[in-house]
Amino acid sequence: MLVLVVITALGFDFTNGFHDTGNAMATSIATGALGPRVAVAISGVLNFVGAFLSLAVAATIASGLVDTKVVTLTVVAAGLAGGIIWNLATWLLGIPSSSSHALIGGVIGSTMAAAGGSAVLWHGLVSKVVIPAVFSPIIAALVAAAGTWMLYRISRSMTDGARKHGFRIGQIGSACMVSLAHGTNDAQKTMGVITLALIVNGTIPAGSNAPVWVITGCALAISIGTYIGGWRVIRTLGKGLVEIESPQGMAAESASAAVILLSASFGYSLSTTHVATGSIIGTGLGKKGADVRWNVAGRMATAWVFTLPSAALVGAAAEALAHGIGGTLGVVVDLIILVAIAGLIYYRSRGSKVDHKNVNSEWTGNVAPAEPEHAAA
Amino acid sequence: MNSWIPLNDLWKVVVFGLIAGAGLPALFAAGLYSLSKGPRIRAAGTDSDVLVGGSVIGALIAAICFLAILAAVGWGVYEVYQIGHPSK
Hints:
Chain A is an all-alpha fold.
């Protein structure tokens, strides 16, 4: 059963990878600084490296959110299922929702379904997850706006072409930093869940750090997921929010990387998605005449507010089902349903395919570009 | 209320975030700017995307800027690693 949970967790990490590729690379792909496939390849490699950089977030997830004495493996599995389903659904719709919150929501939900509200360490949840979640996009937007404003001011006497050229090069550097930061924050949280599962199973004592094989496995899963690419979300972030130029891209990425790395070193589990979106909006605000598509931003904000509770509901439902059936069979049933839903979502996505060929087509209001664009691409 | 909102860490994120997240790109911009000074730019005209202007001092300043950025990033990553791997 532990094996099932670990495999499911790695599956989550994989979905995390392709959900979050956009956070690091959307701006670079949108401005043409990096070719789409090169971008995701680099992102994959750096995510792998970043995963090893800091153990702080894994510690928070493993021990700081739910009472490890009360949680069972079934609960962890159900929580993962909740997180994965939410992740896939939002991926299909091209909504850059937070994988972090999907995961945490799922685990909280299943924990509450199993053991009631007292099993959740609310203080840890609020101070290390919810508060950073609320503040980080705002801080990121602030940093990005300041950066964007400075970049345009300092480079105002340069020709448009030179500026574009120069900042495209800069973007490569900043995009790399974001991928690194992402590995540090996001691979870590799945490590935290697996560590939680190990603690709950009694394999390792409470309060331990993540074992090396866990770190490596999660790092691999997330980097492969990244490479497969999350074209849908990349499209929304790169084209749907703000039409961006290279200086903005660089400012956004640097802001994201800085905020994520700093917070991760404090052990705060951030949503890299929220931070990246905050940065992108910040660059829209920092440049005179830039146009932010607030309706897209609004749609995202709504999805975000719903993520934690929705994933929690799915996690709770999964837990109720597994518990009702009982034992290993319960978990297996959950996983079969999960795989079925995943397959359905994937099948649905083929109808409105976004890939590296049409990721940069003109934004027409929906994630999938209009047909003529696809033919012309 | 205070123990629920980690103010101490939050302001650190804001300050260091601004320094690193906005300051480093600004330094990069400054580097680009000084790199672009020089005779070649004037000769190239307003439509070109030639980046290197040809002024020696400009190039030197630019090099210092870029090296400083690399050093800052390297130091930052090192720090994150140190904080993230507390010795038991």
